[in-house]
Design a protein that fits this description.
By secondary structure, this protein is of the alpha+beta class. 41% of the residues lie in helices and 27% in strands. It has 3 domains: 160 residues, Nucleotidyltransferase, domain 5, CATH 3.30.420.40; 93 residues, Nucleotidyltransferase, domain 5, CATH 3.30.420; 65 residues, Actin, Chain A, domain 4, CATH 3.90.640.10. Strands 3-2-1-9-10 form a 5-stranded mixed sheet, with helices on both faces. A hairpin with a 4-residue loop joins strand 11 and strand 12. The longest helix has 17 residues.
Length: 341
């Protein structure tokens, strides 16, 4: 009886937290409040002392602009923790920022992770969250969280396909009866698209640009499908031949060509998942189609490209950037459901 009382007191005096720990951005959902934080997964540290100087938006603003004594680090690579200590500092910062100091008990935390995460990578996520101040850590796969956040009926016997395109990975899953029937994960996402743009501009214009600039180009004029009206954009960087600043004008047509490789990898991952899908569930997908989530879903025309290659209807989730975080929040409202998953 006393144990049950303690559990109820903990429920009242602590806030459960859901975290979409992304390669590019991290979002935090607090039970009863919704999504309260969305910041880049970047940490700025002093190289010699290893002291953390900035986290999130402030740290991202340091990328490509830091002096020799400061380094801006992204502790997650391709969806998993690459630097345990820095990831722990980042998680601690996020948890302390959203968790009221007046709370008596530390929060329970639900973290969304890639489907193909290894045991070592799983332990890294749990250890980081534990040391950052979690009372209890549970995990949910990103495609399941994205499907829940996108409003798909994951517990029904009907087949649902979710394609979650994050910064470091693309997760494709067919979900039915609260479980993942078939899934594929490829370490291609928004970062791969940014890198492809950087390579294209370097190879064709001898212009060196940074990741922030390539991301801006992708957002402003990037596409995977011919546009009704093609766009142009001025891009500034450093001329590799002269070493001085230079400005060029690029078109959405050539950026689409630059993005062909990562887009093709995503499409092939979807096709492979469909080929392995049980025939009964394949029939469901003809009626209900494919849902895209994650920041990569915002690439112009991607839903049309995937639809053309798969002959299935493809839609984009409402607020695709928030789908995984919203899914962790919905799951927090019923932790028994998470246990069943």
């Amino acid at each position: 009886m006393s144990f049950n009382i303690i559990q109820r007191v903990r429920h009242v005096f602590s806030n459960d937290i859901g975290i979409d720990l992304g390669t590019a951005n991290s979002l935090v959902y607090v039970r009863g409040q919704g999504i309260v934080l969305s910041e880049p997964s970047v940490v700025g540290i002093h190289i010699e002392t290893k002291k953390v100087l900035a986290v999130g938006t402030e740290a991202k603003n340091m990328l490509g602009r830091t002096p020799g004594t400061i380094e801006a680090i992204r502790p997650l690579k391709e969806g998993v923790i690459a630097d345990l200590e820095i990831a722990e500092e980042m998680l601690r910062y996020f948890i302390q920022k959203v968790h009221s100091r007046s709370k008596i008990f530390q929060p329970r935390i639900l973290v969304a992770v890639p489907s193909g995460i290894t045991e070592v990578e799983t332990r890294a996520v749990k250890d980081s969250a534990d040391r950052a101040g979690a009372r209890e850590v549970k995990l949910i796969t990103e495609p399941m969280a994205a499907a829940i956040g996108a409003g798909l009926p994951v517990q029904s016997p009907m087949g649902n396909m979710i394609v979650d395109i994050g910064g470091g990975t693309t997760e494709v899953a067919v979900i039915s009866l609260g479980g993942t029937v078939e899934w594929r994960s490829v370490r291609t996402g928004g970062d791969s698209m940014d890198a492809a743009i950087e390579r294209h501009i370097k190879r064709n214009y001898s212009l060196l640009i940074g990741p922030r600039t390539s991301e801006n180009v992708k957002i402003a004029i990037g596409s995977s499908y011919p546009m009704k009206e093609e766009l142009t954009m001025e891009v500034k960087g450093r001329d590799l031949n002269s070493g001085v600043p230079k400005t060029i004008t690029i078109s959405s047509t050539e950026i689409r060509e630059a993005l062909e490789e990562p887009v093709t990898q995503i499409v092939e991952t979807v096709r492979t998942t469909l080929e392995r899908c049980p025939p009964e569930l394949s029939g469901d997908l003809i009626d209900h189609g494919v849902v895209l989530a994650g920041g990569g879903a915002l690439l112009r025309g991607l839903e049309m490209t995937i639809s053309q290659e798969t002959s299935l209807p493809v839609t984009i989730a409402d607020e695709p950037l928030l789908a995984v975080a919203k899914g962790t929040g919905i799951a927090l409202e019923g932790l028994d459901f998470i246990e069943s998953l």
